[in-house]
Amino acid sequence: MSTLTSSDPARTPAAEEAVTTRRAPAKDKRSFVDGTLNVFSHGFLLVWGLLTVLPLLWAVLSAFKSDNEILTDPWGLPGKLRWDNFTRAWTHGHIGQYFVNTGIVLVGSLTLTMLLGATAAYALARYQFWGNRIVYFAFVGGMMFPVVLAFVPLFFVVRDAGMLDTLPGLMLVYTAYSLPFTVFFLTAFFRTLPTAVSEAALIDGCGPFRLFFRVMLPMAKPGLISVGIFNFLAHWNQYLLPVVLLKDENKYVLAQGLAALAVSEGYRGDYSRLFAGLTLAMLPVLVVYAVFQRQIQAGLTAGQMK
After folding, report:
1. Phi, psi of 165 (to 5 degrees)
2. Does the pLDDT of residue 106 top 90, yes or no?
3. Does residue 279 sit in helix, strand or coil?
4. How far apart are CA 185 and CA 121, in angstroms?
5. Distance, CA of 222 to CA of 233 (rounded, Å)
6. CB of 241 closer than 8 Å to CB of 170
7. Residue 245 in contact with residue 176, Cβ under 8 Å?
8. Residue 94: how many CB atoms within 10 A of its CB?
9. Average model confidence (pLDDT) across the chain
10. Cβ-proximal residues to 260 (8 Å cutoff; 6+ apart), any chain
């Protein structure tokens, strides 16, 4: 046994040193490649961040300028902070009315979307019944259907229902538009929740509705917050659907009203009021991103962590 061990060339110190020497260049090369990719990725993210932040910062600074400063020195700082631009945008530019209309539509559409989406996703994820997969893939297929193709039939359906040019009609359309993604997202999330908790609640006498509202919904809070934020941003920035379904200027939502404000202020030359309106419209979105950033990340990674 000792003879075989000592005669094995792979076990000699010289052979081990040769293997180590061969591995060193490969390890150095891999470290160089990883470092280069790391520098490139960080540089790309830095450029992307600047391209995103600088236009927003420029719009905010322009909101405090006079029209003369915007035209003569567009890249300079404002001479003084003109808060009256925001007052004029809120009142004379009707931004306040657009905010109220948007808030009413968002509260109704998000409530319906989260309630219907959560119940449908829970049933599809936790109960087995005939047609389960058919219903699930029908929702998934709804995500692939461009809403632009449905504008003409959607207009006639809403008109025949007597809800054209009304905020409740827009709420229902927003809800139908957001349900496929909501059900798809929450179905995958509900499947990650432990079944032992629900089984223990059923053994203790908890009924199906109480199990859903008192046990499963609190456990799905990260996913609900994440999909709720995504729907909020989608509804807030929606422009095409309000253009098709709303014609009364008193019922315009914010995105639709900003487009009308840009046209009117462009002809009048009141650019300071236009930038003030844009800044007011951006603030809620920035606040949502800043406050709920961790919840969004937790909701996206919760399915992988469980």
Report:
1. 65, 35
2. yes
3. helix
4. 8
5. 17
6. yes
7. no
8. 19
9. 82
10. 249, 252
Other C-beta atoms closer than 10 Å to the C-beta of 97 total 17
- What is the pLDDT, as a whole number, of residue 29? 62
How far CA 23 is from CA of 19, 27, 31, in Å, comes to 6, 6, 12
Show the CA angle centred on residue 146, arms to residues 144 and 152, nearest 5°: 140
By residue count, the chain amounts to 306
Residue type, 286: L
User: What is the three-class DSSP state of 166?
Assistant: coil
Of 66, 60, 72, which is closest to residue 85 (Cα–Cα)? Answer: 66
* For residue 9, pLDDT beyond 80: no
Q: Under 8 Å CB-to-CB from 4, ≥6 apart: which residues? A: none
75: which 2 tokens?
Answer: 């890249």
Domain spanning 84-305: CATH superfamily: MetI-like (1.10.3720.10)
Domain boundaries, given as residue ranges, for the chain = 2-63, 84-305
> Is residue 163 within a helix (H) or strand (E), and if so which, with residue range?
none
- pLDDT of res. 143: 87
Q: 95-126 vs 132-143: helix axis angle to the nearest 10?
A: 150
Distance CA 187, CA 132 (A): 12
